[in-house]
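Model: Ready when you are.
Researcher: Fold this.
Model:
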Amino acid sequence: MPRLYLVRHGTASAGFGADRDPGLDQLGRAEAEAVADVLAPVGPLPVRVSPLRRCRETAAPLQQRWDTEPVIEPAIAEVATPTDELDGRAEWLRRALGSTWDRLEPGPQAWRQQMLDTVAAIDTDTVLITHFVVINAVIGAATGDDRVLIERLANGSVTTVDHGPGGFELVTAGVVGTSEVL
C-alpha cells in the first residue's frame, strides 16, 4: 500500500484572486525548508509537483536534499474554476469552499475525479506538493466527506494518506492553520 505525503505549498506572495502563478514569499521559503526537514528522513522518494510556481519552489529544498528531479503533475494543480478572471476566480472559490462537490459545476467535479484517479494510480511511496483544495479532496475521498473544505490546512503542512484496494486511508491530517486561501 503506497504512502502519499501531500504537502500544501508554502505561503505565496499573492492570493488566488490576485495572481495566477505567484512564487513564494519569505515565509513560504522558510516553510519549504521546514517541509524538507520533516520529510528528509523518509526518503529519498519520488516527488510529484503541481506545475504552479509556488509548488515548484516549495519542492526545491527537498529536491536539493534528495538530489532528485520532481515530476510535474498537471492533475494536482489548482481546482478548475468556471472563470479565468481573477476576481471571478476568488469569488467562485469563496462560494465553493462553503459547498459540497456534488453541488459544484461539472468542470470542478470532473477536475476532482481526474485528480483523484491520478493520485490513486500512484503505486509507490511518493511526495506530492500541491494545493489546499487538492489535499481537502483527497481527505474527503479517504473519509467519505463530500465537503470541498474539510480542513483549513496550514501552508507547508504535510497530510499523510495510504492507498490500497479499498481506496484512500487518512493516516494523519496536516497541521491546521490560519492562512488565507484567497
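Researcher: Now this one.
Model:
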Amino acid sequence: MRHASRWIAALLLVPGLLWAAAAQAAFTFTRISSPVFYTDTSVTPQLPCNYVGFAVTSSTAVADGWATIGSYSSNLANSSFEDGRHHLGSFSAGQTKYAYFYVCSSYTTTGILAGQGYTITMLDRSPAIAGAVTLGSQAFTTSINNDVIQANPNSVSVIFAGPNPAVLGGIITMTVEGDTGTIGSAPGPNGPLAFTPAAYTDWRADAYELVSANVTLSGGNSGSYDNQLFLASLTSSSTTHYVVTYQFRAVTTTSTATNLSPIAEIASGTQIKHTSTTSGAYGGQLLPIDSATNTLLLSKLVSAATLPQTGGTVTYTLRVTNSSSYAVFMDDFVDTLPTGVTYVNNSSTFGGV
C-alpha cells in the first residue's frame, strides 16, 4: 500500500540525509539567560521558575534539528508543563537559532546553592521518534540564588499580551514595560539585569512556546538586545526604562485562564531584587485557547474507496486548511496505518517535495 500523505515526509523521506548530517554536524551552544538561577520562595505566589535560553549554532547544513534539555541536578527540573524539547528545524552552515525551556527549582532554603546544572542536546528528529541521533550536546552549570527579594522601585507598569485568546498554532506577543530604579552592582558594574517572561509554577509552558525575545532600554541606559535575557552590566547606574517583547507560539489548547508572571531581576545595591508582584500591572491573564474556535481543518483523502481481494496501491493525502488571518506553524503530522497494509518506502511528499 502506498502512503503518500504530505505530512510524513519529515519522518520517512529524510532519515538517510539526517544520518549523514549527524556524522558531520558540529553544534555550539551559548547561554543567553542568566548564569545564576534567581528564585524567591518567600512571596505568594512563589517565584521558583525561570526560562533558560540558548543560542544554537551549526557548523554545517542540517536537515532537521530538535533541542532538548535534561540531566538535571537534584534541585532543578522541567516545569510540570515543559516537555523539554524545542523544534528548531533545518540549519544552513553557520546559522544560529534559539531554544528556550521553562525550568523550576525545588530549593526553598534562604541562601545560594552552587553546583547545579543541566545538559542541552541536539537531535536529528523529535525524541519521540525511534532512532533519534545526537548531533551535539553541552553541559551547563548554575547556582540557585534564593536570597532574592522584591523591590517596589523595580516596577512593571504595563503587561500586554495578544491576541487574547491566542489562535492555536499562531503567535502571541507579550510586552512588558517597567523601570529599574537605581541600578546597583551585584557584581556589576551597574548590573546584572535578568529577564524571564514567567516565574509561576502554573505557567503553561506547554501551551505557550517561547520563540523569541527582545529587550530595549531607554533613559539612563539605551540599547536593543535580541534573544538576550541577561545583561551582565550597563554603562550607567541611573534609572532605566525597559520594554521586553516576548513572542510565543500557541501549541495546544487550555481549559482555564493562565496567570501572567513576567519578572525582571535587577541589581539593587549589592544584591539582586526582583519586580514587585504585589504592585504595578500584575494580575492579568491569558484566556483559554479553545479548540472549539480552532481555525485549522484537517481532512484525509484516499485515492480508492475499495480494492480487489488481490490488493493494490492506495494513496492517502492529508490536507490542513487555515481559515484565520494569522499564520500557523506545525511541527508534526502523525498518521497510523490500518492493520494489514505496508508502507511504500520513500513514497511520501510534503508540499510537493
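Researcher: Key takeaway?
Model: Confidence is low (pLDDT under 50) at residues 1-24.
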